[in-house]
Design a protein that fits this description.
- It is found in: Cytoplasm, Cytoskeleton, Microtubule organizing center, Centrosome.
- The protein has 1 helix and no strands.
- With about 80 residues, the protein is mainly alpha-helical.
Length: about 80
């Protein structure tokens, strides 16, 4: 009878461990999916950042060109 009690306790322990493992497995799968979504969002954000940086660079070049043009116009108007 002692062995039967020990076996029942072991079965209960294993069932509890199985439930914990099942919950952990589900949580792990949810985290994996969430991580995949976050990685995709990060990729999209990085692509948007690169686009913004390119547009910013173009605008900076235009500002420099306009400043050169204004400088030439100012020089020309002063020499008239």
């Amino acid at each position: 009878k002692n062995v039967e009690i020990l076996l029942q306790e072991k079965v209960a322990e294993l069932k509890e461990q199985f439930e914990k493992n099942t919950k952990s497995d589900l949580l792990l799968k949810e985290l994996y999916v969430e991580n995949a979504h976050l990685m995709k969002a990060l990729q999209v954000t990085e692509e948007k950042l690169q686009g913004a940086q390119k547009r910013n660079h173009i605008l900076e070049e235009k500002v420099r060109a306009l400043n050169r043009l204004i400088s030439k116009i100012a020089s020309a108007s002063l020499s008239v």
